[in-house]
Amino acid sequence: MRKFLIAGNWKMNGGDQFTFDLLSFINNQKPAISEDVDVLVCPNFVSLSMAINQLSKSDILLGAQNVHEAEKGAYTGEISASMLVEAGCSFVLLGHSERRAYYNEDDTLVHKKLQTVLRHELAPVVCVGELLDERKESRHFEVVKTQTLAAFEGLTDEQAFQVVIAYEPVWAIGTGETASPIQAQEMHAFIRSILAKQFGEVANAIRILYGGSMKPANAHQLLSQPDVDGGLIGGASLDAKSFVSIIEIAESLTNTVREADSPTTLEEH
Ligand code: PGA
Fold first, then answer.
1. How does DSSP classify residue 71?
2. Catalytic annotation on 140?
3. Cα–Cα distance measured from residue 37 to residue 254, given in angstroms and rounded to the nearest whole number
4. What is the rounded CA–CA span in Å between residue 159 and residue 140?
5. What's the pLDDT tens digit per position in 74-111?
6. How far is the CA of 73 from the centre of ligand 1 (A)?
7. C-alpha dihedral sign at 217, 125, 261, 243
8. CB-side neighbour CA atoms (13 Å) of 119
9. Atom of ligand 1 nearest to the CA of 215
10. Which residues contact ligand 1 via a Cβ below 6 A?
11. CB of 16 within 8 A of CB of 50?
12. DSSP string of 136-151?
């Protein structure tokens, strides 16, 4: 059974004070997290050290929102994987749609970053997802397949196992629109079917998160889907109460028979 991962992507919000306050609230409201759920927060780079101090007595994991693909060197303004490890990160987001859209990150660059991150034993969370027009034109499966295959190209089974995928339909990010549980499940099962072709059984161990306006009101339905293994949460992760309540929803679902035990539809599109 895959362990849920509930991840907060804080984006470019808040500095040290905000990080201190938000993590204090979360720690107070949720002093212990079930062993069946991993919880991750991804603050901005300069607040990573504030975050790691706040997390020293907590089970919450730390991640970054981006990384440079090179080991080191003359790349003004960039941050390397070894710096993230030193700062206490264990995860890093890669290829978020905002990075693809505003910083021209393409599949080739995302793959290079992924290889760098794996060399440093950081766990990559690779974001994939289609634009609204691509869905309207029924190209969403093709787009997500291309992104997924490019990210995983040439990886060994052991490497693939370290990777987390976040399916984030771009039309659902920050818009209040959410993919329906059926749409999410359909895409997650599809992604798993692509991975199964390349990695066989390992595909069943790879976590696929849903992202795009996940909040307490829709988290139960989304996380109940057999192939939805957690959430990458933007807006709702900036509010301690909402984030904690999503964690608690995930915890409650680990004790129930997730629809996961029903056979997954592995469709080809
Ligand atoms: P959202 O963001 O939850 O605000 O839609 C998700 C994300 O961009 O990762």
1. S
2. no
3. 8
4. 26
5. 999 999 999 999 999 999 999 999 999 999 999 999 99
6. 32
7. negative
8. 14
9. 3
10. 9, 168, 173-174, 211-214, 232-236
11. yes
12. HTT-HHHHHHHHHHHH
